[in-house]
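Handout, section B. The chain below has 111 residues.
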Amino acid sequence: MKLFLKLLFGGIFLWMTVMTVRTLLAVSIWAAWPSYAANAWAVATLWDAYFGFLTFYVWVVYKERKLWARILWFLLIMGLGNITMSLYVFIQLMRLGRDEPAETILWSRNP
């Protein structure tokens, strides 16, 4: 299970990073904004995404004990979304000991 999750979240991180860079090279985010903002469904989806980021961040606050880490992860999650979220889960999985089950990342806190 841990290997599957590492591959899954590592793959999400790589895919989202490549797609984001590819899209940024093709279309300026500022050039696309007016037509995006005019679409009510696009705006609703953006709100949905950011509330999802905030929900995930609540878990990060539980996991991270240091204020600087909480602030850094907040900025990264709000700025890069699923790229950062998949990286965070991947890092948590990589920190697990060989005999620790994957679910340990859900309830254990970082030192």
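Note. The longest helix spans residues 2-26. Compare this with the example in section A.
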